[in-house]
């Protein structure tokens, strides 16, 4: 909108549209009635002229009395009907006193019609007839038509004016009724936008109009997703702060200990340096995992066909010497082609093996299985550890979530490994799930899309 045309409200749009519609309808009615009446009057005048011409052809009209006789038989209004006779010798005879002045007045013919407008006289239907050496010029007045049109147009204008006054009142009420849900929705959205740091409330959802109701429903779905993201961000910041606070406090405490007692008790220095090294390494791993998550959130992955079975065999061969548990692999004899990113799938598999290694006893094995169907390829990592309670499975892939905090504190980790795995699986257009292993332990199942063998 330009500066001269500010945005309009519902009421303005409906009122302007209603006014234009009513004016257009009024103009159409006026034109239709005017054309209909004009055509009807023209046909009537033409019929009267035909009757008069027939009477003039059979009656030798040469004076006013003859004209009165013809006029009475034709049924014409003598006040609006005039005849001017041009004789064979060139002389002119007027049957009424005013006919001579009518013939001398300025006149304009309307093309393609017999209508003639005579200055100071009005509109006439004109017809010329030649018979018996005489030329009869007939003028039939259209004053009745003009009068009827004036009355009709005046009535239509009054009706349109009254309709506008009454219609605008109801249009205003209709616009207010229609715009009320939208205004309420906009005010609620403005109130929600004014407090972006808090959980956004649901916007009011009217039952009608349907379009506004659907818009409010979509807004509420968007707000619900936004609230979920805000809650996860708050939880992430809180958990990250907590996880970083512990190693930093340990490092600072040991530094202070060295400063206070290092000179007199040098034996505390190696132990304190060991704690500092351990906690700094823990903080380094935490920061690296946070960077992994940050990169995964913004990553754009170009998936390519790869042999999942070959990738898993390679990871198992390199991983087995690093852990005490026996790692087994069961797959297909032929290539299992899937769509994915090799580096990300390698990272996913190593993370799942690390998780199984941390929670499994050394005398238990870790089983890897690859199963292929027509459309999917499934990778399963199963351990025989303590397992995961059903209540915890819903949160196992959330950031910083750790099962059984009292037990997890004894096991090294930041609670970000499985969150990274879930994000990487999603980037590879796959799905991950966790179930119980038989007789005990956990099974992590990653499902990927198949690719054509190449």
UniProtKB/TrEMBL annotation:
Domain HAMP: 176-231
Primary location class: membrane
Signal peptide: none
Name of protein: histidine kinase
Reactions it catalyzes: ATP + protein L-histidine = ADP + protein N-phospho-L-histidine
Gene Ontology cellular-component terms listed: plasma membrane
Broad EC category: transferase
EC number of the protein: 2.7.13.3
Cellular localization per UniProt: Membrane
Gene source species: Levilactobacillus koreensis
């Amino acid at each position: 909108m330009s500066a001269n045309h500010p945005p309009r409200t519902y009421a303005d749009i409906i009122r302007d549209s209603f006014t234009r519609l009513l004016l257009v309808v009024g103009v159409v009615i006026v034109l239709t009635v005017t054309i209909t009446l004009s055509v009807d009057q023209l046909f009537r005048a033409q019929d009267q002229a035909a009757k008069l011409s027939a009477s003039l052809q059979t009656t030798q009209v040469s004076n006013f009395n003859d004209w009165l006789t013809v006029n009475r038989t034709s049924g014409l209004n003598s006040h609006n009907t005039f005849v001017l006779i041009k004789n064979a010798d060139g002389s002119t005879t007027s049957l009424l006193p005013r006919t001579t002045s009518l013939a001398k007045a300025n006149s304009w013919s309307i093309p393609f019609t017999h209508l003639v407008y005579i200055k100071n006289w009005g509109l006439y239907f004109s017809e010329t007839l030649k018979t018996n050496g005489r030329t009869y010029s007939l003028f039939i007045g259209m004053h009745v038509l003009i009068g009827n049109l004036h009355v009709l147009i005046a009535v239509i204008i009054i009706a349109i004016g009254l309709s506008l006054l009454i219609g605008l009142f109801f249009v205003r009420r209709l616009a207010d009724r229609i715009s009320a849900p939208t205004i309420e929705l906009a005010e609620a959205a403005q109130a929600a936008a004014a407090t972006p740091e808090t959980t956004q409330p649901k916007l009011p959802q009217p039952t009608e109009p349907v379009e506004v109701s659907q818009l409010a429903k979509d807004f509420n779905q968007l707000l619900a997703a936004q609230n979920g993201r805000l809650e996860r961000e708050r939880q992430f910041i809180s958990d990250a702060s907590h996880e970083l606070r512990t190693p930093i406090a340990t490092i600072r405490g040991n530094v202070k200990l060295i400063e206070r007692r290092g000179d007199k008790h040098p034996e505390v220095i190696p132990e304190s340096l060991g704690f500092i090294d351990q906690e700094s390494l823990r903080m380094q791993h935490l920061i690296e995992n946070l960077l992994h998550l940050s990169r995964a959130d913004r990553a754009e992955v170009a998936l390519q066909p790869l042999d999942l079975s070959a990738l898993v065999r390679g990871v198992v061969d390199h991983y087995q010497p690093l852990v005490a548990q026996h790692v087994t692999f069961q797959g297909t004899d032929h290539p299992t082609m899937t769509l994915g990113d090799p580096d990300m799938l390698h990272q996913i598999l190593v993370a799942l093996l690390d998780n199984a290694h941390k929670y499994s006893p050394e005398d238990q094995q870790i089983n890897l299985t690859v199963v292929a169907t027509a459309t999917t390829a499934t990778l399963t990592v199963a351990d025989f550890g303590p397992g995961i309670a059903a209540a915890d499975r819903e949160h196992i892939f959330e950031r910083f979530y750790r099962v059984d905090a009292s037990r997890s504190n004894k096991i090294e980790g930041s609670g970000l490994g499985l969150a990274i795995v879930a994000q990487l699986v999603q980037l590879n257009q796959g799905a991950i799930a966790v179930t119980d292993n038989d007789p005990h332990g956990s099974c992590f199942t990653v499902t990927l899309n198949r690719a054509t063998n190449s």
